[in-house]
Amino acid sequence: MGNLTDNLLQAARIGDTHFLQAMITNGNTINVHDAKGYTPLIIACYNNQAEAAALLLQSGADVNSVDAGGNTALMGVSFKGYAEIAEMLIMHGADLNMQHGNGGTALMFAAMFGRNDIMEILLRNGANPNIVEFRGLTALDLAIQQGNHAGAEILSHTEIYH
């Protein structure tokens, strides 16, 4: 991994929009990956750096880029619970139904970790609750397995979103 990649990822991690803008203005690519496959957008989103994420998206960051495990920025914010960034990613074309290496989706992350507000955002925007991961479990199955009763209730009534 080159120094430029390190610097871009660090700027994304801490939300240094001035540095990111300077790199973009100088023509540097923002769709770089480190050894784990992380991109500046994935790092900004995972660290709740909404301004940096917005700048990266407006500058052409690949919203559906994946890390080495197949995780997207949307999956990261669905796990962490960052609703504002989830909305922003969706507005910029995030694939709601992408599956990572084990078949999990952003909706499944939200269901497992009790991020019910994000589940509602995803469902309202067309996420498919019927996708199954590698063990054959749906988001509803995972919500029940994790004791997320409110999330299971939301997923039991997904027809209201479609």
UniProtKB/TrEMBL annotation:
Keyword vocabulary terms for this entry: ANK repeat, Repeat
Pfam families: Ank (PF00023), Ank_2 (PF12796)
ANK repeats (start-end): 36-68, 69-101, 102-134
Protein name: Ankyrin
Source species: Pedobacter antarcticus 4BY
Lineage: Bacteria, Pseudomonadati, Bacteroidota, Sphingobacteriia, Sphingobacteriales
